[in-house]
Amino acid sequence: MNDFILSSLIFTPLLAALIVLLLPMRFQNTIKAVALGGALVQMVLAILLYFRFDGTAAANGQSGYQFVNKLDWIGFSLGSLGRFQIEYFVGVDGISISMVLLTGIVGVIGVISSWTIKKNIKGYFLLYLLLLTSVMGCFLALDFFLFYLFFEFMLLPMYFLIGIWGGPKREYAAIKFFIYTLVGSLFILIVMIGLYTSVIDPEATAAQLGMLQDGVANSDVILQVQQLLQQNVIEGANIVRTFSIPAMMDPANFIPGSLLHVLSGTVLWDLPIRFIAFLLLFVGFAIKVPSVPVHTWLPDAHVEAPTPISVLLAAILLKVGGYGLIRIVYPIFPDGGAYFSVLVGGLGVLSIIYGALCALAMNDLKKLIAYSSVSHMGFVLLGLASLTSEGVNGAIYMMFSHGIISAMLFLVVGVIYDRAHDRMILNFRGLAKRMPAYTTFVVIAFFASLGLPGFSGFIAELLVLVGGFSAPDITGMLPRWLTIVAVFGLLLAAAYYLWALQRMFFGKYWIFPELREKAKLSDLNAREYLMLVPLAILALVFGIFPHLLLNKIGVAAQGFTELVLRNGQEQLQMVLSTIVR
Amino acid sequence: MELTELLKPLAGTPQTTTALVVLLLPLLAFFVLFFAGKRLPRRGDWLAIGISTIAFALSVYLFTQTWNTATFHARTTWFSLPSTVVSDFTAGILLDNLTVLMLVIVTFISTLVQLFSVGYMQGDTGYHRYFAYLGLFTFSMLGIVLVDNLLLLFMFWELVGFSSYLLIGFWYHKPAAVAANKKAFLVNRVGDIGLLLGLFAFYTYFRTFDLEALRSLISAGDWLNSSFIVNYSLHGEPWLLELSPLLLTLAGLGLFMGCVGKSAQFPLQIWLPDAMQGPTPVSSLIHAATMVAAGVYLLARCYAFFTPDALTVIAIVGAITALAGALAALRQYDIKAVLAFSTISQLGYMVMGMGTGAYDASLFHLTTHAFFKAALFLNAGIIIHAMHRGLHHAHLDHMDAQDIRNMGGLRKTMPFTFYSYLLAAAALAGIPLTSGFLSKDAILSVSWAWAQTMSANCNLLYFIVPATGFAVVVLTAYYMTRHMWFMFFGSFRAPFDVQQIRHSLKLETERVMLVPVVLLAVLSLGIFFSLNPLSFSSSWVVEGISLKNLSLNMLAGNLVQAVTMQDDANHLPHILIGIFSALLAAAGIIVALIQYNRKTSEQLLLEQPATTFQRLTYNHFYLDSFFRTGFVKPAHWTATTLYRVDKWVIDFILNYSSKWLVVISKIVGWFDRLVVDGLVLLVGAISKLFGMLGRNLQNGKVQSYYAYSLFGFILIMLYIMLF
Questions:
Q1: Alpha-carbon distances of A104 from A18, A40, A306, A403, B534, rounded to whole Å
Q2: NADH:quinone oxidoreductase/Mrp antiporter transmembrane domain spans which residues (chain A) (predicted)?
Q3: Measured between CB atoms, does A478 come within 8 Å of chain B?
Q4: Closest to B186 (Cβ–Cβ): which among A358, A494, A507?
Q5: How many Å apart are CA B238 and CA B241, to the nearest integer?
Q6: How far apart (Å, rounded) are the C-alpha atoms in residues B88 and B76?
Q7: Which end of chain A has fewer CB atoms at under 10 Å, N or C?
Q8: Is there a single domain that holds both residue B396 and residue B488?
Q9: How many angstroms separate the CA atoms of A257 and A266, rounded?
Q10: B422 within 8 A of B428, measured Cβ to Cβ
């Protein structure tokens, strides 16, 4: 069971997708049931994994991953150039466990929300399930190639889900989303290839060198191999290059003289090549986060996407960006992380303020919430850049919490759009009178999102801000004024949410005359309760008992900060020393 | 000193468990009433009041257990981050004199307000929702009072903001109400930003939010060469802090910002007058024991963390607020507006007291103010309720039931209300024998001693603070007299029979509303707070919460000590200050009486703010318009501009570059078609040409073939011969 739980998590939706594919179009209810079943199984597995995951186990590094599954996938000899190797390498640690749990939960919510989809149900659920598989794969992959595969594969279902089932400007939004993300993944691809040429798999290299006894690589052997590598005495034919992310995190695995080795001394546009690589990766993932100024795909995609896809997009897909930064960018290029912390934190703060101000200017409720996503994801960047324990824990917590709360927000928008086919704030007034239960959930979602204590968002924002504020004294990372500016985001968040509440939900009941005939403003139905109630409870539970998640995250986040800080300072010195020479 | 030792979990005692029950009871009421209130008999008001009464009874029990006898502290680890530079985040309950005093006040006034609401809110469609919100509000306020660390305090602080948002906007169909609750929340958030930054500053250096631990760390520190040195260890690693006074002052002022927002201090007091859009009992709760008191409570809890400079700023802000509130109250015509501005003014007193080292006096004033202000607001509620009844009977619903110009002569129609109002108003104006006289006198005395201490180097400017305090005494007496005159004296000015406003022939209003009011008004008498109703120093409240009982080192320890010594030495000034403030109050009353006794009914009905100064104070110094043009409008402008940047800059660049991409791809396509394809076609054409040539040779005629081979033979021969 332990060996297969991660693979089952990834491939259950795919299996369901296959079944959907084989079912004839007219079995609509069966298709829905299969999709729901697939998502439910995935959620149950994710919850099971959450409970069985041991949060106290060793920190980040080769041994910190649990439920690891490592299989040879593609491997062949390149003669004197060594061996080419791609592995099916999956595992879970404190950083990914929260994302896995989130994906499981939101996946089911999304299916329930998709119940009202009318157009081409078979195609819709097929793509939906493919999306779940690729997202889950992203969060569990520990091989960069495998990660990239899943990362790229997310694009395809998303493109069609927006482009076919979306609103009036769906083609524009879909292509914009596609191009933005594709440009980002190209940057990632470039660095990935660079890394591949620079990093060896010490274990497999040891096997190639015949240094293994009984086929097991203990740490002594690995250390020996790494020493041999750094002395440059391993023959080219015996070097096994790898895409393994844990291998890339260890600077001892970089081949001397290779492109991305800390002492390579290669300079491009006056910057060391490792900094360029950091920036390329950062941009690639920042597009996904999204961070200002590469965020403009998000409002369009959200506005055009159908409700369940918006939910998935905001709650899970954005997290892949933040997750990539934590899993890949910072641990592999800690020197860049240390060097560019002001840039990353600065963009985070810019996103917080800019996104919040844009949200204030919105008349479309869904666009308002899309911009609020930009604002909230800025906290992730700020927390990461601080490199304090509070900041990093807060960043991961923010990703989880934003997943829950933004799902709720987009569902809430969907409710009014379903009934009135309109969601302009100024077209409604005093909805509280007609839809009291709905308004209650709007108030809950809005206040959860603006960081009311008791909801998970507060814990996340608090940890990020306190981490950012103390960073200059604890880790020496960010200037303090950045965090002080970021705190004003809390005020702006309150402003745009409360203003929207005031204009749309309170006051005397009124709706725009042209909408009156079509709009049937009934209060929430059972299906909507089924989605909103669990999310509200989750936001509350994780707001009051943050240890439920922090106990799982803590050790990994601590390992992350230590690794990045320690390696970062060391490698930064080395990289900069090569430039001076 | 090891920080982790200071943060060890502490086992609960029966007392702390009881306190937890007191805290959770109102939350229980909230959940039950919110979800099931509609289905309960009488829509659950009995449940809410019953729970409140139990909470009050338990609070009294806790009071007897704790007051001047012991402190109880229970603490547990809330969550922890595995890092060597982070201590555990703890949560706990701390019971000391200050806590139990606030506990009793909050639960008592909350119970009375709920009782009053049974009459006041009768028949409202949201009746159960109203009681639910009150439960949430009480829960949040009790949380602020009970918790033992600043992070939890901040959380409940925000919840108070949220529940006040719900209550102020309770009548959500009224546009003014939903504008007011938004404003209240946002203005409070401005203050909260400061508070949060203050918390961060303390956390950054002391690595904990726990109040006791912070106090221990600060008492362990010392001023050396004008910087504050603290030495402690965390997880065994030493932390040596050398903090500049400027940093500590800023951090303290950050905490104070929270108080500025919540306790409606200058310049963030603008939300409080608007907050009266909520139901009147809610105003009573907000203005008396909860919410606005929270800011002063915060100052008291964090008193050790303020530097002398920070305290000076606090004193000055308090004095400004006291004066601004009193001035604004001079010309108001809305019954609740007068009271709202008087609250601002009185809160200014309290904050000024905190700043001048009058810690105990300030809390004493908080206590007395809670009772008489609750009485005043509930009385105002009775009057508004009665006016509504009268206006409704007379089909004059469009008339403003809260405008005191429409009232008059109510003394005879509503005697109970009149006398209880009179008592509470006397306390507010600081007439001897009332509670307000005692506490105000206490603040004025200490602020005088403070000015004496601060001006030791002949800088007499510090005397402006106590002088402002005295000036406010006159103003308060004046506006309360004017207020009373409008409502209770002269003749009734609204166009219907004044008897219409009575509930019935026998009763001026519902009994359930009258009882709390009379009770609170009686509690405005000085005798309940001090056996000698002319001297505050024998008051049990002051004795219980004086700084002497705190026995700790404070950042401003030297200053506060000096002020206390100076105050103790001021025997004669004490008596003189008491007499002087009583005389000032009398002067204010007499001026108002002379001014208004002359006016006819007609003049009173049509009175308008006439002079520039009157208009200025009537409009609250145009602070609202200042904030609107200074902050709100620029924010909106920036917001729309930034969105345009999104649309017209970022997306424009994107679309423009994608257009260029298309152009380039067109060029590439053209190149592909003409050049690359052209080359390929050229090769084809050439070989075709050759093929044509070759084809022409093979025409099937033997003589041609013979000629070609002869020609070839000659060519070969020529080649051999020539080369």
A1: 19, 8, 20, 11, 70
A2: 141-197, 274-478
A3: no
A4: A494
A5: 10
A6: 10
A7: C
A8: yes
A9: 10
A10: no
Percentage of chain A lying above the pLDDT 70 cut: 97
| Interatomic CA distance for residues A333 and A520, integer angstroms | 55
Same domain, B29 and B173: yes
Are A508 and B173 an interchain contact pair (Cβ–Cβ within 8 Å)?
yes
CA distance B178 to chain A (A): 6
Q: What is the pLDDT of residues A208-238, one digit of tens each?
A: 777 777 666 677 778 888 888 888 777 777 7
Rounded to two decimals, the pTM is 0.91
Asked if A260 has any chain B CB less than 8 Å from its own CB, the reply is no
A37 Cβ neighbours under 8 A, 6+ residues apart: A16
pLDDT beyond 50 at A61: no
A78 contact B CB<8A: no
Are B470 and B319 within 8 A, CB to CB? no
Q: What gap in Å lies between CA A454 and CA A435, rounded to an integer?
A: 25
Q: Inter-chain contact A357–B650, Cβ cutoff 8 Å?
A: no
Same domain? B597 vs B637: no
Using the Cβ of A551 and the Cβ atoms of chain B, whether some distance falls under 8 Å is answered with yes
Q: Do B81 and A362 touch (CB under 8 A)?
A: no
- Does B313 lie in the same domain as B295? no
Chain B residue numbers with beta carbons less than 8 Å from the beta carbon of A483 are 200
- What is the nearest CA distance from A409 to chain B, expressed in angstroms? 19
Look at residues A137, A360, A238, A65 and name the one whose alpha carbon lies nearest to residue B182. A360
CA A462 from centroid of its chain's CA atoms: 20
Find the CB nearest A554 among B82, B85, B654: B82
Chain B touched by A181 (CB under 8 Å): no
Which amino acid, A362?
M
The per-residue pLDDT of chain A, averaged, comes to: 88
With bands split at pLDDT 50, 70 and 90, how would you rate the model's confidence at A394?
A: very high
B648 and B595 within one domain: no
Tracing tokens 């003189």 back to the chain, one arrives at: B576
- Determine the length of chain A: 581
Condensed to tens digits (0 to 9), the pLDDT of residues B577-604 reads 889 999 999 999 999 999 888 888 888 8
Whether chain B has a CB inside 8 Å of the CB on A561: the answer is: yes
N-terminal to C-terminal alpha carbon distance within chain A: 54
Q: Tokens for B435, please give them.
A: 């509670």
All residues at 6 or more sequence positions from B123 whose CB lies less than 8 Å from its CB, including other chains? none
Q: Specify the residue for token string 């080369």.
A: B723
User: Range of B450's domain?
Assistant: 307-609
With an 8 Å Cβ cutoff, are B186 and A498 in contact? yes
Residues B403 and B456 in one domain: yes
Pair of tokens at residue A94: 């404190």
| Cβ of residue A58 closer than 8 Å to a chain B Cβ | no
Point out the domain boundary residue: B609, B640, B667. B609
Q: Would B150 be classed as within a structural domain?
A: yes
In sign, the C-alpha dihedral spanning A265, A270, A273, A278 is positive
Per the CB < 8 Å rule, is A452 touching B159?
A: yes
Which of A387, A458, A498, A540 to probe the B interface (max B CBs under 10 A)? A498
Phi, psi of A298, rounded to the nearest 5 degrees: -65, -50
Which site among A54, A360, A449 would you substitute to test the B interface, given the most B Cβ atoms closer than 10 Å to its Cβ? Answer: A360
H-helix segments, B552-622 = 557-569, 571-597, 601-605, 612-618
Q: Any chain B CB within 8 A of the CB of A509?
A: yes
Instruction: Answer whether residue B122 is part of any domain.
Output: yes
pLDDT digits (tens, 9 = 90+) for A549-569: 999 888 888 888 988 888 888
The DSSP string of B475-527 is HHHHHHHHHHHHHHSS---SSS-GGGGSSSSS-SS-HHHHHHHHHHHHTTBGG
Pick the residue from chain B with its C-alpha nearest to A447.
B162
ipTM: 0.92
**What is the residue type of B116?**
F
> For tokens 């067109």, what's the residue?
B666
